[in-house]
Design goal:
The chain is an alpha/beta fold. It has two domains: about 80 residues, no CATH class; about 140 residues, no CATH class. About 35% of the residues lie in helices and about 15% in strands. The chain contains nine helices and eight strands. It has a four-stranded parallel beta sheet with strand order 4-3-5-7, with helices on one face. It has a two-stranded parallel ribbon with strand order 1-2. Strands 6-8 form a two-stranded parallel sheet. α1 crosses α3 and α7 crosses α9.
Amino acid sequence: MISMFSPRSIKGVFVEDNQATIRILENGKSPTFRHTDKTQRVNLSWLEEQFKRRWCKLVHGPSMLQAADILTKPFVSAEKWKLAVKLLAITPTKTVTPQKALASATEAVLPPSTAAPSTGGPAAKSDTKRLIVEVCCHPESKLSQTNRKWSDGCEVLQFTKEFDLNEVENQTRIASYVNPFKGDVKPLIWISLPCTGGTPWTYINMQNPNAREKVLKHVREFDRLWISLKSFLRMLTCKVYYLIQSLQTQ
């Protein structure tokens, strides 16, 4: 989406509460952090160039307005803690009556209903208003629990380990149900392929023969699933929504 705009039409604003860090980014060098280019792959000279191009703006902001501090720093002051929580828009929950709590608990222990495609093709339902297709999921995923009140009128189809996405017959089976679907909204294709994009640890793992083979196995698995996914999407003749979620693999 960013590629639709000219480079200088959008300016990112980075708010930093540490004056020393601002000086380092403005100068592009620091004797204390001279190792970061090799260990963390953070190039200070490159960062300096980006700010000099004025595509991004670096400004100083007070520490009390840094919302992420609640995740990285200890708090000894109750007032500072309340402010930090407020920055994350976390507010006290509403008081729940015993009757509502009992009803909620009863609903939580009901056995989840799993989608039919995991074991066979779904049967058409007259009251189906929404349709979700989960790509690469567990048979008892949260989305498949259509017995909850907010899932009323929603049907979930699944590609699981057993109902394999790589099987063309399974792709055709799901597509034949999605294409003629007439509901209140367009069907949603929820895609959650395993992530093989890698992290800085991948560079280290590739140095070990056993770890390297595991990494390459994940890559081959992703490539195969991606090809199968494109094959399935080409079978869809109706308009749908897409949502892609990346799942980190170890």
